[in-house]
Design goal:
single chain, mainly alpha
């Protein structure tokens, strides 16, 4: 879960966080005999942190559609993201305390081994701190922060000689696919707004809900139920 949160702070995507951490951690958890339900559930739940922890791609799209401040939305997502991360950790700890066989203890490592492992995360943490800190500190805009973050990652790849032509092609292809997906969603959103206004669908739906006399909490429950059903079929950005 902590790994998902850290990767979410770098990628800003729930799907990318779940996929990456799934590839990295599932094999290791299977190796240490973690319960499959727990390991897959942890990755799936931890991946959702990408929509909350800045820089969230969902916040960027929402800010563009509603003409809100991207920086303020990023700031608003910090505390909920941390609280959700802590809630996940608490639930996992309780489950493993009740049923230790769900998550057996791993091998004991020394502090020097832990410190050595943490050193490998310093470049990634530095990129996150520079980009997010730069936005909150007013040094550059979110768009400029994206360029700075990409530049730092490219520089790190060149220094460590891990940046190959194949990696550049793959990154470029993924960027094009992601950008095209986001642009299609934005275009569709701008097209559907006039349609909803002309068809009076929001008014009809509002009157139907009011006629049910569900009250505030009942109406909220209906909305959440609709979101849950749609969430099973729609991509997170939508």
């Amino acid at each position: 879960v902590i790994g998902c949160g850290g990767f979410a702070a770098l990628s800003g995507s729930s799907v990318a966080s779940a996929l990456t951490m799934g590839k990295v951690s599932l094999a290791q958890m299977d190796r240490f005999n973690y319960d499959t339900r727990l390991s897959t559930g942890v990755v799936a739940a931890g991946g959702t942190l990408g929509i909350l922890i800045p820089p969230s791609t969902g916040f960027v799209i929402y800010a563009i559609l509603t003409e809100q401040s991207i920086g303020r939305l990023f700031l608003a997502g910090v505390l909920p993201g941390i609280l959700l991360l802590m809630a996940f950790l608490l639930v996992i700890a309780i489950l493993c305390w009740i049923k230790p066989e769900l998550g057996p203890r791993g091998p004991i490592t020394s502090w020097s081994e832990k410190a050595h492992a943490m050193l490998g995360a310093i470049p990634i943490i530095s990129v996150v701190l520079v980009t997010i800190g730069g936005i909150y500190g007013g040094f550059f805009s979110p768009v400029e922060a994206a360029g700075v973050g990409a530049g730092l990652v490219i520089l790190y790849g060149m220094i460590t000689r891990q940046l190959t032509l194949a990696a550049i092609r793959e990154a470029g292809r993924d960027s094009v696919v992601t950008t095209a997906t986001v642009m299609l969603i934005l275009i569709s959103a701008h097209l559907i707004n006039p349609f909803l206004a002309l068809s009076h669908i929001p008014t009809v739906v509002g009157e139907a809900l009011a006629a049910l006399h569900l009250g505030v909490y009942g109406t909220l429950a209906v909305i959440l139920l609709i979101y849950m059903v749609l969430g099973c079929f729609l991509e997170g950005f939508a």
